[in-house]
């Protein structure tokens, strides 16, 4: 099998191709130092070994490898179980609007949940839920589009095809009142769910940030929770640094005393991957309609707005890069929202009694 090697050559560097111990070719590199030569060597080898006309499975896996260590790579490893059996063997030029619609139709008829969850349903005699939501289908197709656009940007393919996705739909506007949240908290039967709920409402953190939170990012001395890494200069999306409330400090202190892993949200000595099942059970016991992790984050933002907190402060708590989105979504919950403008439209009083 051919092998590429980086070699010193004529006072500089070269990339040589060997097979069976015999040199087949050698190419002078432009770089003059070791670091530059190493980087140029990597580019040359990547260009030489790049698959010709790769299929979508190759592109998907290459993108996941390029994003190794990021949450998107983990998410695409899971969603690939649905996307790749349908699209994997196709070439980019094979992707059409009709094909995307066929994928969406197939997913709307598919069984929901992981294979393990489906086995548990079947073992219990309950029917496995059917019908993947349009939001899930949209996420899967958007990941495919992202991988294809990346492949185009790095020269793996010439042109990324258009990917048709289901509409985004209407955003859920419902939020929990304080009384509803108290009922939900009281209905939480396990310590990990109770801690999760307190952490979620007290930090307005995203679900992923809460489940990935480690104890080294809980600063009891300063009373702070770092939802993102402590020492990065550029904050991650939705991962702010927020102060602890009194209730959260008490809950965290208790959980810290009995911790068995480095994760804040743990159960039976293992990090918790999802709270959806436990949350669904608490929701039923609290006699509430469907409650999601995002709804708790949304509720926290509404409560801050209802308390009259400045939108810039609410945006900082949510981890938004600016308060434009925050203003658009949450300003209407503020007690001062449009009050000045409404006062300018007051009628009655002395002006109303003027003769025409």
Q: What is the structure about, briefly put?
A:
With 356 residues, this protein is mainly alpha-helical.
Chart the SSEs and their pairings.
Elements (H helix, E strand, L loop, with lengths): L2 E7 L2 E8 L2 E7 L5 H16 L6 H11 L4 H17 L9 H12 L6 H10 L9 H20 L24 H9 L4 H13 L3 H6 L5 E2 L4 E3 L14 E3 L2 H12 L8 E2 L2 E2 L4 H10 L7 H14 L4 H8 L5 H7 L8 H5 L13
Antiparallel strand pairs: 1-2, 2-3, 4-5, 5-6, 7-8
Please supply descriptive tags for the structure shown above.
3-stranded antiparallel β-sheet; 8 strands; 10% strand; hpI Integrase, Chain A; single chain; 356 residues; globular; mainly alpha; 3 domains; 15 helices; 48% helix
Q: How is this structure best described in words?
A:
With 356 residues, this protein is mostly helical. The chain has three domains: 3-49; 56-153, no CATH class; 194-333, Intergrase catalytic core (hpI Integrase, Chain A), CATH 1.10.443.10. Helix content is 48%, strand content 10%. It is built from 15 helices and eight strands. It has helices spanning 34-49, 56-66, 71-87, 97-108, 115-124, 134-153, 178-186, 191-203, 207-212, 246-257, 276-285, 293-306, 311-318, 324-330, 339-343, and strands spanning 3-9, 12-19, 22-28, 218-219, 224-226, 241-243, 266-267, 270-271. The chain has a three-stranded antiparallel β-sheet, covered by helices on one side. It has a three-stranded antiparallel β-sheet with strand order 4-5-6, with no helix packed on it. It has a two-stranded antiparallel sheet with strand order 7-8. Strand 1 and strand 2 (12-19) form a beta hairpin. It is globular, with a radius of gyration of 27 Å. The mean pLDDT is 88.
